[in-house]
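Predict the holo structure. Ligand: zinc ion.
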Amino acid sequence: MVYTGPDFDPPPQRRSRRGPLTVALAALVCGGLLGWGVYAATGSTDDKGTGAEAGGSPSAAPRTPSPAASSPVGSVSPSAEDEESSPAPRTPSASAPAAAGPLKGKVVVIDPGHNPTNVKHTAEINRQVDVGTHRKECDTTGTSTNDGYPEAEFTLDVAHRMRALLEKQGATVKLTQDRDRPFGPCVDERARIGNAAKADAVVSIHADGSGAGNRGFHVILPGPVNAGEADTRAVVEPSRELGERIAGNFVRVTGTAPSNYIGGGTGLVTRKDLGGLNLSTVPKVFIECGNMRDSKDAALLTSGAWRQKAAQGISEGIVSFLRG
Ligand SMILES: [Zn+2]
């Protein structure tokens, strides 16, 4: 993916912090031109609790996406108070009435990865569920920063910020969980919630738990799967389109470079082992927003202001996708 040009140029920032990004963008151009491939793993070497669902973050050569337009037109400007404090949680099913706006009539489902109380329900979350290609645990606890900031809190915080931003655009927004259930939902149910809502777009929010020095975000796209209840053939292409626009806008709004340890520098990875993707019948991607176990990434992930930018970048990608 060529993250250059007015749509992708990161917001003008203080020169000191942007050095590496320019390098990253240059790397992106090279990586984008080089990268293509798919990593298909079933039940890959889990690292219980870290990464998307379970399975850590295998290395994969990503597909080079087309320079999808990430139009500021769809920009969702956060008001000042959004910066630090995230909007209060609400019951997920009671989505706020859609305001007028460019996304009126559109349904977006946000899947905050893991659940803050999963850790108290290990028997329930270890129960095996069918994800079409294989069986895997219902859910995992998620990772945390070395200082103990839980991934499950991070995902809910970003989800709340995204909901506020997208509702301002007129979208109907549903969350798969909002601290309103003792554990889960299981990965298969998370997919079914998006399917049942006939969502126009679904995004699963995560943060990775990889080695220190591994930095940056990556977006996980569904690979073509047709096994058991899983059949992604109809959503592979639209999900990639969604993923490309989210990746492009995430770079532009946060100034954060794509992962330096997975995805060949393009920030995109395709997988066939995630139940949440395999069972989706609507356009859906996962995003690993950064590495909680790297001190520099952790400094970003634990910052309300950066989480607001992350929510804005992901939301603008969704808006750009939905507005085509
Ligand atoms: Zn996760």
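The chain has a mean pLDDT of 82. The chain has one domain: 21-72+89-323.
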